[in-house]
Here is the input.
Amino acid sequence: MKKRNDNLKRVIVDFKKLTPEILALLVEKYPDGYDEDQIISFRNASNEIIEAVEVTTADTKYLVKVSKKLAITMENYDEDDYDDFSSNDPDAIQDPEIEIESDDSDDDSDGDDVDDVADDSDSDEEDDLE
Here is the structure.
């Protein structure tokens, strides 16, 4: 017996091609975001591993590639932001601003403090050895 989803068109969607309609479906299906067990992994034609989440319409099964941009866009979703766009306009979804985390939050622009600390510890060790 065939499943009703067997005849659906299958489309892989990258964030750059995400439309307001697909974004709305994703937010509806995953209102609290998606978990690891909801991510589908597969190899594309170039044999690269792709991770995606699935959302289905009446005639199409979309596999939307998982990315940090997708997660942030879903978190900040507001349907009013897309009122001025067609539901299938990929230009409606803008790249979110992603903050780059730095390991050197106390980084000094001239770097003198780091050198001073290293110099002080070196001189203490020399004193102990004498």
User: Anything to note?
Assistant: The two ends are 87 Å apart (CA to CA).
